[in-house]
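Whether sequence alone determines local backbone shape is best considered at the level of individual chains. When preparing material for the folding task, we compiled for one chain both its residues and its backbone structure tokens. No coordinates are needed to read the tokens, only the vocabulary itself. For completeness, the protein is quoted in full, as a sequence line and a line of structure tokens:
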Amino acid sequence: MKKCGIIDVGSNSIRMGLYDYDENGFTMIDNYLTVKELVTYIENGQISEKGLEIAYKTLYSFKDIANNRGVTDLYALITAPGRKVDDPSVFVNKLSSLMPIELLSAEQEATYAFKGAKCKVDLKQGMTIDIGGGSSEIVQFENDDILYETSLDVGCVALSKIDPKEPLFYVEDILKKIDYKFHGDMIGAGGTVESIFLIYEKLGDKKEFITLDDIQTIIDRYNEDSIHYIIGRYIYARKTTLFYGLHILYEIMSYYKVKKLYLSEYGVKEGYLIDKILKK
């Protein structure tokens, strides 16, 4: 078996997955997450030196962890942050001394998120959703074929900076600009979806799938002590953004009339592994 590591540099968090793989597939060895909110260091199409330094130090730390685990083949994917700056090469110039850097377009990110999520959940027809800090990727599919894909310019960190009275209208306005309509079940990847399933599990109600009513229940109960305890104990890193991620997910599921949301632990990193590394 070979070993590799893939890092997803997102607007809210930076994640690293470590994997064993061969021609037959892959197995995750470990997964690491740190919340850095890089999107908050981007203004008027420019990322500050502090933001770049945070990204560099995080990747340096992850590289050290990977080396200690016997993983030397390491790749970094720059997702939404690279699309929010006027000159994405600033990331490559800063980080390429550490490892190969690939800047993903919105379409590439959506495709990789679909391939990663789909390999974990066997759904014949429906949608995948990955809510990030700066964008949300949606793919509508049938079997293994992509029917439609889009990246919404809305994420939980970016939304948290908007007037708190306005976020729902903001998401709704973005969705109205999408002509493509599709009704079906959904596979969710990423921190917002993971957090909802975890909250229900810690409440003693582990779920196979989540409904729109389930999300509304968490939104309605968000200020209860029991929910605050679970967030503080198990998903503290998302305490400032989860509320907005819930609203984004609710609006998307409502707009597309999604009845069931399934959780996939795999997403962009694993889709990249399937498409770029296993095919070599």
